[in-house]
UniProtKB/TrEMBL annotation:
This is site-specific DNA-methyltransferase (adenine-specific). The keyword Transferase applies. InterPro entries: D12N6_MeTrfase_N, DNA_Adenine_Mtase, DNA_methylase_A-5, DNA_methylase_N6_adenine_CS, Restrct_endonuc_T1M, SAM-dependent_MTases_sf, T1MK-like_N_sf. The keyword S-adenosyl-L-methionine applies. Residues 7-166 form the N6 adenine-specific DNA methyltransferase N-terminal domain. Keywords: Coiled coil, Methyltransferase, Restriction system, S-adenosyl-L-methionine, Transferase. It comes from Listeria swaminathanii.
Length: 858
C-alpha cells in the first residue's frame, strides 16, 4: 500500500526531474492540470463501472467495454454519466487511452490537445457547468508551448513522461481517503516554494493558513465561507479541515481570483477535495473593481458569510482602476477611500462588507495597516470606534516565499460589545529556521490559537488593549505599544560590581527555583550584607541537589506515571484504527489531551509537550497509522516493501530495488533488538579494520620521514602519482616484490612483513564484514515476514514512543536548568570586585616596573 507521504514524494521528485529548466510557477499548470484530467477520467470509468455492473473487470478491460457500450448506446450513455457527474469523458479521450497509445507507440500530442478541448463539450448545461468550464483552456495548458520542448518530438517525449507519472494512481480511491487532495495541496505548496516571488499569486504558507483557519473555524454554525482573493483555494480547504464532518457536508464555498490559471487551479483543488460542484461558487474576476458576490434581490447589501478568510496582495498600488467612490457600499463604513497607492484596507473593507453579523473574518496584511496615517489612519480609527477589530496577531518575518517582511493577521467581528478590548498577540519571536524560510512550529500555532480562544494576557506575548489605551495611543495599533517584549538581559548592579555578591532581587526573580526547591536554593546562598548573597556551593553540586530534590523527583514520578498511561491509551487506539478519518481525528485528540495532562503541572511549558507529540506524528505516526488503517496493525507489521534506490545520473539515472524494508518496522531496529550478537560480531570486525587502517596510515607517514628505518624499508612500497609523489597508502604488489629482495630477519624485512600482514588482514576483514552484512540483510528481509505479534508490539512501540515519556518528564528540568544557568551567570558576573581588579592592576604594575628595571641599554 502506498501512503500519502510516498505519493507526495514520488510526484514531487517526478516533477523536478521532468520540468527541467521550466519555471515552477508555469510547470505547475501542466502537471496539476493533467493530474486533474486523470481524476476526471477515473471518475467517468468508476461511474460507468457501477452503472453497467462491470465490477470484476480490470481497468484495461473496463476501457474496452466502455468503448463498446458507447458505440452501441451513443449519447444515451453520455447523458446517463453526465446526469450524475455533471460531465463525462469519451472512451477515445480517456487518460487511459493516452497511456495505451504510449504503450503501443501511437501517442500523439494532438490527441491530448483534442481530448482537453473536447471536455468543454461534455459538460452538462446546468448551474454546475461553471465549475468545469475553461479548466483546460490554452491560456492555462498550452501543449504547444516551446518551454515543454523546442520541437514536437521533444514536447511529445516530455508530455508522455508527465502522463506516465500518474498512470498507476487510482484517483477515485485516493480522493475517498483525502490522500489525493492532500497530495495536490502538497504539490501546490512545493511549486510555491520553487516559484519564489510568484508564489504569492496562488499560495498561503500552511502554517499561516492554519492560524487563520483554526480561528475562523471557531465560529459557531458555519454554513458558508468566502475568500475574495482565493488563490489556489488552500485557505478555504484548511478551514474545511477543522470543521466537523456534518458541517463540511453542508458548507458553501465562495471565492474569487483574478489570475485565470490560478482560478482554474482553485476549482480543480476544491473538486479534488471532494467539494461538490453545487456547493462551490468560484469566479474569475477582480475583487476590488467590481463587487462579488451580489444578491440580485438586495443589490446594496451584498451576500454575507459566516467566515471570510483572505491573503490579498500586499500594499497593491493603483488598485482603484475602476474609479470607485466612497459611496460604494463596501467603503461606506470607512467614510473615506483607501489610498490608491496601497490597497490593503480596500481588501479588508471588501471582506468586512461581506461578513455576517455573527461571523469571523481573518486577513493577513503587512504591519503598515496598524500604524500608517492619512486616510488609512482614519479607516483604522473608524473600525476601532465601531469595535470591529477583535484581535491583532503579529507573525515572524520571512514566512512567505514572495516577501521577507513580517505580517500580521487581523481578526474582525461585527458582534462585539463596545467595551470589549482588542486582543494583541506578539508571536513574532516564536519560529524555527528551515532553509531560507522561517516556520511556525505546531506548538507556535497552538499557542496563538489557544491565546485567542482564552483571551489570555501573557507577559511579553499578549495583551488586552482597552478602548482608553487605544485612544491614548491615537489609534496607533503598532504591536510594541501594547506588548512589551521581555528583556532576557539582566541589568548590571553597580554595588555588586564594587563590593561583590549577587543581588537578592535577582535571586527573588528565579521563580521556578523559589517555588519548587526554595530550601535547596537558600542553603546554597549565604548573606554577605543587606540585599546581597554569595553562592557557597559549586554549580555542579547545586544542580545535582536541585534535580534530585524530593519535590522534583516526586513531581517527575507523577508526570511519568500519567505520561505512561497517556501513551498506553493511544497505543491501544492506534492498534484499532481502521480509516484515514480516524487517523486525523486521533492525532487531534492526542494533541488536545497532552495539553490537558501537562496543564495541571506548574512550572513547565505545556506547548513544549505539545510539540513532542506533534513530532511523533510528523516523524512516524502519520505514515504508519495510514498504513495500519488500510491493512491492520499486525498485517502491516509483517509487511515488507521494495527498497528503491536511485542509481546513475543524467540519461542513465534509474531506480532499482536494493533489498527490502519493513513497512512500519525499521530494519535497523529489528537488527538491534533481534540480531544483537550478529551486529556485535560485525562491529568488532569493523573496529579491528579501523585499527588496521590507522596502523597502516602511521607506517605510511613514518615512511615519508627521510633517513628513518621506515623510510629505508618502506618508501619504495608507497603508491606514487604520475609525478612520482608519495600518496597515502601502500602498493600491495610492490610490498611483496620488496620482500623477495630483502634479507630475512633484517629490520627492513620485518617492517615489510608487518605491512604485508596488515594489508592481507585489511582485505580479509573487508570481505568478512561484507559477507556478514549480506547474511544479516537477507536474514532481516525474511524475518520481517515472520515477526511475532509480541515482537511487532515491542519494536513498533520503541519506534513510536521509545523516548516520549522520558522527553515529557525532562520538561520539568528545563525551567530549573534555565534559572540555574542565570544563577551561574550572576555568580561569575560579580565574582570579581573593584578591589580585586585594583589589586590585580597593582600587581601587574609592579611586575612591569621590575621588568623595566632589568632592561639594559647597550
Amino acid at each position: 500500500m502506498i501512503t500519502s507521504e510516498e505519493i507526495k514524494r514520488r510526484l514531487w521528485d517526478g516533477a523536478n526531474e521532468l520540468r527541467g529548466s521550466m519555471d515552477a510557477s508555469r510547470y505547475k499548470d501542466y502537471m496539476l492540470g493533467l493530474m486533474f484530467y486523470k481524476f476526471l477520467s477515473d471518475k467517468t470509468l468508476e461511474k460507468y463501472k457501477s452503472m453497467a455492473d462491470k465490477g470484476q473487470l480490470s481497468e484495461a478491460e473496463l476501457v474496452e467495454e466502455y468503448a463498446k457500450d458507447r458505440a452501441y448506446h451513443g449519447e444515451n450513455l453520455d447523458k446517463m454519466i453526465q446526469s450524475v457527474l455533471g460531465y463525462f469523458v469519451l472512451p477515445e479521450h480517456l487518460y487511459q487511452t493516452w497511456l495505451k497509445d504510449i504503450a503501443i507507440g501511437e501517442f500523439e500530442v494532438q490527441k491530448v490537445i483534442d481530448s482537453l478541448n473536447n471536455f468543454e463539450r461534455t459538460i452538462a448545461v446546468s448551474g454546475d457547468s461553471d465549475d468545469f468550464q475553461g479548466l483546460f483552456s490554452s491560456s492555462t495548458i498550452d501543449l504547444t508551448d516551446t518551454a515543454l520542448g523546442s520541437n514536437l518530438n521533444e514536447r511529445s517525449k516530455n508530455i508522455k513522461a508527465l502522463i506516465e507519472l500518474f498512470q498507476d494512481l487510482n484517483m477515485v480511491a485516493l480522493q475517498k481517503s483525502d490522500v489525493l487532495g492532500d497530495a495536490y495541496e502538497y504539490l501546490i505548496g512545493q511549486f510555491a516554494m520553487e516559484s519564489g516571488k510568484k508564489a504569492g499569486e496562488f499560495y498561503t504558507p500552511r502554517q499561516v493558513s492554519e492560524v487563520m483557519a483554526q480561528i475562523a473555524a471557531k465560529t459557531s454554525n458555519i454554513t458558508s465561507i468566502y475568500d475574495p482573493t482565493v488563490g489556489s483555494g488552500s485557505l478555504l480547504l484548511t478551514v474545511k479541515k477543522h470543521l466537523k464532518e456534518d458541517v463540511q457536508r453542508d458548507l458553501n464555498y465562495y471565492g474569487q481570483e483574478k489570475n485565470t490559471a490560478t482560478y482554474n487551479l482553485t476549482r480543480m483543488n476544491l473538486l479534488l477535495h471532494d467539494v461538490r460542484p453545487e456547493k462551490m461558487s468560484v469566479k474569475n474576476g477582480d475583487t476590488l473593481s467590481e463587487d462579488w458576490p451580489e444578491d440580485p434581490s438586495r443589490p446594496a447589501e451584498g451576500v454575507l458569510f459566516d467566515a471570510v478568510v483572505m491573503n490579498p496582495p500586499y500594499s497593491l498600488a493603483n488598485w482603484n482602476k475602476s474609479n470607485l467612490k466612497v459611496s460604494d457600499p463596501r467603503f461606506e463604513i470607512a467614510g473615506v477611500l483607501p489610498p490608491d497607492s496601497k490597497g490593503d484596507f480596500a481588501f479588508l473593507l471588501h471582506g468586512l462588507y461581506h461578513l455576517g453579523q455573527t461571523g469571523t473574518m481573518a486577513i493577513v496584511l503587512p504591519h503598515g495597516v496598524l500604524f500608517r496615517g492619512g486616510t488609512e489612519g482614519e479607516i483604522r480609527k473608524r473600525l476601532l470606534n465601531k469595535n470591529y477589530i477583535d484581535t491583532i496577531i503579529g507573525l515572524p518575518g520571512n514566512l512567505f516565499t514572495n516577501t521577507g517582511i513580517p505580517v500580521c493577521v487581523l481578526i474582525l467581528k461585527k458582534n462585539r460589545a463596545i467595551s470589549d478590548p482588542v486582543l494583541v498577540i506578539d508571536a513574532s519571536r516564536n519560529f524555527i529556521k528551515v532553509g531560507k524560510q522561517n516556520e511556525l512550529q505546531e506548538k507556535d500555532i497552538a499557542r496563538i490559537v489557544d491565546t485567542y480562544v482564552e483571551r489570555a494576557e501573557k507577559a511579553g506575548y499578549s495583551h488586552l488593549a482597552s478602548r482608553e489605551e487605544i485612544v491614548e495611543n491615537d489609534y496607533n495599533m503598532n504591536i510594541p505599544r501594547y506588548v512589551e517584549s521581555i528583556d532576557e538581559e539582566i541589568p548590571h548592579d553597580v554595588d555588586a560590581h564594587l563590593y561583590g555578591g549577587i543581588p537578592q532581587a535577582n535571586i527573588d526573580e528565579l521563580k521556578t527555583l523559589q517555588t519548587t526547591v526554595k530550601n535547596v536554593l537558600d542553603n546554597a546562598l549565604k548573606p554577605i550584607r543587606d540585599g546581597y548573597v554569595q553562592l557557597e556551593k559549586p554549580m555542579d553540586e547545586l544542580t545535582n541537589e536541585v534535580l534530585t530534590d524530593k519535590n522534583i523527583t516526586t513531581k517527575s514520578d507523577i508526570i511519568r506515571e500519567k505520561s505512561e498511561a497517556f501513551i498506553e491509551l493511544y497505543w491501544k487506539k492506534l492498534h484499532e484504527i481502521n480509516n484515514i478519518v480516524d487517523v486525523n481525528s486521533l492525532m487531534e485528540e492526542m494533541l488536545v489531551k497532552i495539553k490537558e495532562l501537562l496543564s495541571s503541572f506548574d512550572g513547565l511549558d505545556v506547548y513544549d509537550g505539545y510539540q513532542i507529540i506533534a513530532e511523533v506524528w510528523k516523524n512516524s505516526l502519520t505514515h504508519d497509522a495510514e498504513l495500519i488503517a488500510g491493512g491492520g496493525f499486525y498485517t502491516i507489521g509483517r509487511t515488507r516493501e521494495p527498497n528503491m534506490v536511485t542509481k546513475g545520473s543524467g540519461n542513465k539515472k534509474r531506480e532499482e530495488q536494493d533489498g527490502w524494508v519493513g513497512a512500519i518496522v525499521p530494519n535497523e531496529l529489528i537488527a538491534k533488538r533481534l540480531y544483537s550478537e550478529e551486529l556485535q560480531i560485525i562491529e568488532d570486525k569493523k573496529a579491528r579494520l579501523t585499527a588496521v587502517e590507522a596502523e597502516l596510515s602511521e607506517l605510511v607517514e613514518a615512511a615519508k620521514v627521510e633517513d628513518s628505518e621506515e623510510n629505508i624499508a618502506l618508501f619504495e612500497s608507497i603508491k606514487k602519482n604520475a609525478e612520482g609523489e608519495p600518496q597515502s597508502s601502500f602498493e600491495s604488489k610492490t610490498v611483496k616484490a620488496e620482500l623477495k629482495k630483502i634479507t630475512k630477519d633484517s629490520p627492513s624485512y620485518d617492517l615489510l612483513k608487518k605491512v604485508d600482514g596488515l594489508i592481507t588482514e585489511k582485505s580479509s576483514l573487508g570481505k568478512k564484514i561484507k559477507a556478514k552484512e549480506s547474511e544479516l540483510k537477507e536474514a532481516l528481509y525474511e524475518r520481517i515476514l515472520v515477526l511475532t505479534d509480541e515482537e511487532i508490539d515491542e519494536l513498533v512501540f520503541e519506534k513510536w514512543f521509545g523516548t516520549t515519556v522520558y522527553d515529557i518528564v525532562k520538561l520539568i528540568e528545563l525551567p530549573l536548568k534555565k534559572e540555574l544557568d542565570i544563577l551561574e551567570q550572576l555568580h561569575e558576573r560579580y565574582a570579581e570586585t573593584l578591589d580585586d581588579i585594583d589589586e590585580e592592576s597593582k600587581k601587574l604594575e609592579k611586575e612591569l616596573e621590575k621588568l623595566m628595571s632589568e632592561l639594559v641599554v647597550r
